[in-house]
Amino acid sequence: MTDPKISRRQAVLGGATLGGAAVALASQEVQAAAPARKWEPSYSGGQEPTARPPGAPGRDYKPVVTPNGATLPWKVVDGVKIYHLIAEEVDHEFAPGLRARCWGYNGRVHGPTIEAVEGDRVRVYVTNKLAAPTTVHWHGIFLPNGMDGVGGLNQRTIAPGETFRYEWTFKQSGTFMYHSHHDEMTQMAMGMMGMIVVHPRRPPAGYRVDRDFVIMLSEWKIVPGAKRPDPNEMTDFNVLTMNAKAYPGTAPLVCRKGDRVRIRFGNLSAMDHHPIHLHGYYFKVVATDGGALPVSAQWPETTVLVAVGTTRDVEFVADEPGDWAMHCHMTHHVMNQMGHDLPNMIGVDTRKVGGRAGQLVPGYMPMGQHGMGDMGQMAEMGMPVPKNSIPMVGARGPFDYITMGGMFTIVKVRDEDIGDENKDPGWYKYPPGTVADRARKEDMDRDGIKV
Rounded to a whole number, what is the distance in angstroms from the first to the last CA of the chain? Predict the structure, then answer.
């Protein structure tokens, strides 16, 4: 029975105190039952590991494929894998019709993929054949501070004509990158970057990948007619690339039906993140440049955002045949050398203007009143374009002109044995009745469609 001398307020406060004590006690019990949160021993890979016997392709890992690219050769000397990067000027073709004098490694833009195995001791020689000093930074790699490659901070720069040696033991596995870390704005904008793939020493039992692709995302400013990229650009990039190629120069990713596919994306664009979208499938994001994600932490996507300075690995099973588009979903990133200061002409009747302007400028054609999709076709029909440029150009597809360029490629999944995974099998042969086409009148009448 409640004491009549105790007020309601006192009763409420007393109850609150008892309730609070019960909650506090319950919380203590939960904390006691839960495992204590602990810091990992190290976030820099721990102590220098003992070097393991050099990993070999075929035996210890399935080599990756770099579409439009290559893997850096290596040899073994006294148990150490030896690589040689040569920084030099490269005459590079971004797509048919567009070439530029870029900077790269070993005659390539971007540089060849460096492939190794966790526990490998590696020694990388870097020879500078440029007219400017340079360095190489191993982006995301655990290594001694003096091997990190930041010019002026961790080493003196590699002068023209010099060869430097970098050496470390891989403590981790995953997808990483390398790039110049001296006058970055200029040297990376000129193409000095590449991918690094480190395979796990002990991959999960029973887990294998049939196709393992590597794609570097980047962006450039190349003024139509110019012979060099402009490294001073900060916002208006007009050539968007996968492995330094713009569509239609990008090679397809060829798979056989049922293949387990991994695609490793790295982004060293100057300013832009890239949401890469794959048609026809969803994939799982399985790794970042910080390492593999536990299965419980992987998530399904159809578009993966690859931020500047990061890598993302995605995996899927190629179980549906066809030619599936894969591209950056920023719409201006699938256009080639688009002028970003053009007036908006959508819906404008330019017939009279075109006739009058043609009297002053023979061959003048006003464009844009119906969008940009017809510009590539007009170029295909012989419309003059500036020398050494690919403005708005896509490519002829199996049905019509594909009005896409830039950061666009095709994942080609086939029922039959594809043989050479670097060989383009051509366009997909669609089974009868599986292609969208003009609706028949009898079908529309049956379904009550009035037009």
Answer: 81
| Contact present, 211 and 421 (Cβ < 8 Å) | yes
Which tokens go with 323? 């030619």
CA distance 46 to 114: 23
Quote the CA–CA distance of 150 and 170 in Å, as a whole number.
19
What pLDDT score does 32 carry? 57
Q: Supply 438's token pair.
A: 């003009």
Whole-number Å distance between alpha carbons of 138 and 299:
28
Q: Six-digit token pair at 445? A: 């009448």
Task: Give the whole-angstrom CA distance, residue 134 versus residue 166.
Answer: 14
Paired with 34 in beta bridges are: none
Mean pLDDT of the chain: 86
At a CB cut-off of 8 Å and minimum separation 6, what does 270 contact?
185, 188, 189, 219, 233, 234, 237, 308
| Residue partners of 110: CB distance under 8 A and separation at least 6 | 69, 104, 191, 193, 194, 195, 216, 218, 243, 244
Average pLDDT over residues 229-242: 90
Backbone φ, ψ for residue 410 (5° rounding):
-130, 130
Q: What is the pLDDT of residues 339-369, one digit of tens each?
A: 555 554 545 566 666 666 666 666 555 555 4
* Pairing verdict, β 299-301 and 283-288: antiparallel
Q: Which two tokens stand for residue 218?
A: 């980047």
| DSSP letters spanning 137-199 | EEET----GGGS--BTTTB--B-TT-EEEEEEE----EEEEEE--SSHHHHHHTT-EEEEEEE
Tokens describing residue 197: 């793939």
- Rounded CA-CA distance 21/148 in Å is 54
Token pair, residue 317, equals 């099973």
CA distances from 64 to 12, 23, 70, 214 (A): 69, 55, 9, 7
Burial 351-375 (b: 16+ CB within 10 A, else e): eeeeeeeeeeeeeeebbebeebeeb
419-451 per-position pLDDT tens digit: 776 789 999 999 999 999 999 999 999 999 999
Phi and psi at 432, nearest 5°, equal -55, 135
Residue 341 C-alpha from the chain's centroid: 27
Q: How many residues does the chain have?
A: 451
